[in-house]
Write a structure and sequence with these properties.
This protein has 267 residues and is mainly alpha-helical. The protein has eight helices and three strands. The chain folds into two domains: 4-34 and 89-266, Multidrug efflux transporter AcrB transmembrane fold, CATH 1.20.1640; 40-85. The two termini are 29 Å apart.
């Protein structure tokens, strides 16, 4: 049996490094919001060689719009489409999205707590979910600053998808821990450290196999899927890797540390 929990503070340190980088980027540079959030201009034009280009610009002022038109003319391109559009994701929709996320997080917390008959399981699962969300959002803040990646409607979809994946993988490990706590094992006893190590050893291969099938598919989409869905696939890829890591190395260590601290305080 591998002693996974022996190194749990190293797992916390790795998470802290990535979280700190992402949070720093969010505070200093924020998110590079795309046309879905800001509104702007959608253009379609044909170059002299016959190639057709589609571009989106997150601009608002008349001067910026005129400059785009002038740049297209300088290319000697034929303008096929030039539309000014408003934001498809307004402040009200953003508020509703955050409200929905908060509501779903509370429902997941209560449901996990009821099923596992302990609030510790629910809170630990939600903390791991928040961990994955911050890793993904912080990562795209860094990509937005250094590479110019924009946040659009597909990114919001990716975040919601990853949240469910993160909790699902955590539940599998927690279910095995619960089973082992119910059935007394003379080797494991009631030691939460040993129980967690045993549960992770039994579920690790299953979790990795499941995640690798998703990662391979997403890598194919990133490399071959084209510009339209490239960054959507990248968001899912980051979230999948983070979720695969957080289930055994964030959610379970939080639960184990909580159990140990609770026992110390009781003594």
């Amino acid at each position: 049996m591998i002693l996974w929990m022996k190194y749990r503070f190293i797992y916390f340190a790795v998470s802290a490094i990535f979280l700190s980088a992402g949070i720093f980027s969010l505070v200093k540079w924020g998110l590079n919001l795309g046309i879905d959030f800001t509104g702007g201009v959608i253009t379609e034009y044909q170059l002299p060689n016959g190639e057709i280009k589609n571009e989106k610009y997150g601009v608002k002022s008349e001067e910026e719009i005129n400059k785009i038109r002038e740049d297209i003319k300088k290319l000697n391109a034929k303008e096929l489409r030039f539309e000014t559009v408003g934001p498809s994701i307004g402040p009200e929709l953003v508020k509703k999205t955050f409200f929905a996320l908060g509501t779903s997080a509370l429902l997941i917390l209560f449901w996990v707590a009821i099923q596992f008959k302990s609030v510790k399981f629910g809170v630990s699962a939600i903390l791991a979910m928040i961990h994955d969300s911050l890793i993904l959002v912080g990562g795209f803040s860094l990509l937005g600053h250094f590479v110019g990646v924009e946040i659009d409607f597909l990114f919001v979809t990716a975040v919601l998808t990853i949240l469910s994946f993160s909790v699902h993988d955590t539940i599998v490990v927690y279910d095995r821990i619960r089973e082992k706590q119910k059935k007394y094992d003379p080797i494991l006893g009631s030691d939460i450290n040993k129980i967690a190590n045993s549960a992770l050893t039994e579920t690790m291969v299953r979790s990795l196999n499941n995640s690798f099938t998703i990662v391979f598919m997403l890598l194919a989409l990133v490399l071959l899927g084209g510009d339209t869905i490239k960054w959507f696939a990248v968001a899912l890829l980051i979230g999948t890797i983070s979720g695969t890591y957080s289930s055994p190395f964030v959610a379970v260590p939080i639960l184990v540390t909580w159990e140990e601290l609770e026992k110390k305080f009781k003594k």
